Amino acid sequence: MSSTTGSVLSLPFRKSTPLSLASTIREYVSSKYDQHPDMFKQDLEAVDTLRCDAVNVREPHVSGISKLQAYAAQLVWMGGKFPIDFTWYPALGYNTERPMVRNNLKYELMNVLYNLAALYSQVAVNNPRLTPDNLKVAAHNFNLAAGVLTHVQKEVLPDLRMPDPPEDMDESTLEALIHLFLAQSQEATWQSGVLRDLKDLSIAKLAARVSDLYNAAAEAAVKSEAISSAWIHHMTAKHHHFAGAAQFRAARDCLEKRRYGEEVARLKDAVACLSEGVRETKGGYLSRLVVNDLSSLKKMAEDELKRSEKDNDMIFLDPVPPKSELKVLDRFNMAEPKVPPAVARPLEHLGDKAKFGPALFSRLVPFSVHVALSIYEERRDRMVNQNIILELEQLTEKVHLLLSSVGLPGSLQAMEKPLGLPPSLVQHAEELRQADAIGRVQRSLADIDKLRQADLAVFEEGKSALAAERDEDDRLRARHGTERWTRPDGRNDAQGAKLWGHAGEIEGYFDSSLSSDGIVKEKFAATQHLLHVLCGPDRALLAFVPASAQRETSEELKSSIGKLRSAYNDVLRLESRRRKKVEWLRQNAVRDDIKPDILKEAARLERAYPSTAIVPAHFEDFFEKRLDVLYEPELQFVDREAQEQEKVIGLVERANREFEAQKRKVGDRGLQEREQALQKLDSAYFKYKEIVNNLEVGRKFYNDLNKIVGQGFRDVAKGWLSQRRMEARALEEQVAPSAARPLVHASRRIHANRRRELSMPPLSNLDLSHNHGGQSPLMATYAPNQQANLVSDPTQQQPQQQQQFARGPLPQPGTASAAISPAEESIQSWATAGHQVQQTQAAVSQPANPTGGMWSPAMGIKFGGEGPRQGTAGGSGTWNPDGGIKFGQPHQVLTEAWRPWLTIKTGVLTFKTGFVLSNPPATLTSKVEAAMLASKCPHVYSIAHGVHGPGNVGSVVYRVPSRGHLCREKSEGVGNVERPKRRTGSIRKQPSMAHRAHQ
Questions:
Q1: Any idea where the domains of the chain sit in the sequence?
Q2: Which stretches does the entry tag as region Disordered (predicted)?
Q3: What's the whole-model pTM score?
Q4: Do the bridges between strand 825-827 and strand 85-89 make them parallel or antiparallel, or are there none, so unpaired?
Q5: What is the pLDDT of residue 98?
Q6: Is the Cβ–Cβ distance between 432 and 535 less than 8 Å?
Q7: ∠ CA(391), CA(393), CA(397), 5° rounding?
Q8: Across the strands, what pairs with 86?
């Protein structure tokens, strides 16, 4: 994690992944710019070479400095031209193998400058430190390293605008590294002063400043997540070391100036400081050289303190002042950050004859210019469509409403042409026929419905991503608990809250658009029958418009008709002029190519501010001036149109009042019907125009909404979902280990017990059924004896042995008899870990039992038949019910705590303690297994050697979980395991004949 040489530290390099800038930039230029990538062939090759040279600087040699500086200068020049993903790995901290990827040239620049600072520090560390000149060079390189990091901290990092900068380049880490390199620069100057034999007081002032800088570095390092404990201990030890060294040198100056009491006081403080430094050496964090320097200086200070105290007490008798009264040492500061000129002013080093060559991609338009171009076009379209065209259309609509309210032009047309069709009506009808008016509206409505459904589908994808994130977070929160799952839910996350709010806004857009679509459809439905008339043949029009009687008109009526026609023609001229103006505005907006002018403005900004990256905000004044020049006259035109319209409307109203007065004198009913028909058709024509305009607005709305719901919502929601899933996986990795820690001890115990266990056959493999028909010839041969497996003593290293058990005393005569067949079962005994397990078969043959298979305590239990008894335990071989039944390790002792359960669940006869099995059922296995499962005790694995007949006592073997009990409810009934002593019987190493026959 760090690079150390002797008593100083150097910064390791950050690593990057190989990246072909040429191919990435070529693709980006091809897709985003109107310039062909081949124009920049040499630049593409040069930038790849520069990056390759820069990221491969790995040796502490001065030749790498120019490589890093040249690439950094080109990055500053390219600025925000290309949004490229750059991958870098941290150099400090605990995540040095976790890459960080950012789509920013500033991020690349920051990493290159970081490596430049690391190179300066490594050159300083590897520089010889034997002469004052060597130390001067080392100090200068440390100052340059601190200067580069200061430039990153103050100039590059703020422009990066990263909410989460790399942990080894955050504010605290950079502050700690800057003070560390300044401290090491000051230390080199102090060491040079020692070699040049400066005065003690001067060396003390240099050392005091070293101590201050190390202290500042340590305080900042504590706040950093990347700087290791070893570095923090190093900085703290150095702080105490040089504080003690400063007081030691000051004490020598006091001795020279015969201030003996102050000498003693400063030596005491020196010893105290050095003792604190020695404490930092515990734990093995520091290099041997630092420890030796501290220890030797402390020894020297202690010796000097003893001498000075002795001399002062016996000779000089100078009072020793307390530490608070000692004068604070002055500081000689010889270390300061120095930013290399190639880093501070990189553009001055770019040019045809400059140090780093010509600036790359100088003929390429900056990316911010394209953004500014888009901003201007959007602002221009908004001004043209909303501030000019929309205002003119609203003025025209206002005129139509007024004309419709007074019955114009229908009343005027009916009076002027009582027979046939008016020319304006014929013109409107022909226009609608050629435009296929009804089909056009229907197709537009269908297209709008498709656009709406497409936008809604995209929106639902985004909502599904939000819902998926919510469900996943709820599921993980329920799994891990709210105490461990501390991550805020999606609605409380900053990005999530924004997305959910955006989803609500978009739903509002859909609701309002649905209402608007409904209004347009209602308009069309109300006008459709009239549009059918207009789009039909002239015969249909003539049939729809009734004719009126032709009569002579008075001079007054003719005069009023002429005035009204003149005023109405003024309205028509207004409409025509506005239509032409709207057409011209739209064409002019298309022709408005701002690109040449904005490129000139960008070039001017680059020349005026070479060190400032161009952003769209720099073009605000340029936009305002251009829009004012081009469209301010049009805004004034709208105002003039509004004023002129008011005058025309006044003329129409006065002329229409006079016309209506003269018309009432005529009083022809047929004329009124003709007026109404003509007015309906004229209103239908203008309503069609309004519907078409509404449909165009709706189509544009849904096309714009598609960008909002797609790029602005769905894509962002999916990206946020992926980010939240990554956060969840990382949090689960943190939560899972902490949740598993309380189970570590139990888990170890479980695994330890399982290693001592052998796999037992499942209950379903057992066959303890009765055979009332007698015995087979083969089994009858081995009927007198019952063979069973005994479990090996864990303390003895011997194979498994076989032992024969003899039947106990026969029961009293007179009881009912029952024939019980032998039980052949394979039993696997448990052994200690590492022992081999052998399986044997025990064949048991029993005659009919006259007592019905009942056992009583008076019978006793006798083990063995042949062979001598082993041990004295057991006496006569009679079983004591108070002792329960004990099995070989690790079988459990089942005691009285199990008696109620056995009695209730299996119907087994239970004595005072322990249990015996009386007259077992046909399938003992299923009974016991069902009973154990019914009592929530699923840990029964096998049963071997059930009890058959009087005196034939086998064993019911339960393999239990490693917690040491069969189930939770009965855990108190489990005792320690003891192996019963072997009574009689022969030991056989091979399976019996019955075993082989059974197999």
A1: 11-169+339-364, 198-333, 369-737, 765-999
A2: 754-882, 969-999
A3: 0.46
A4: unpaired
A5: 53
A6: yes
A7: 115
A8: 102
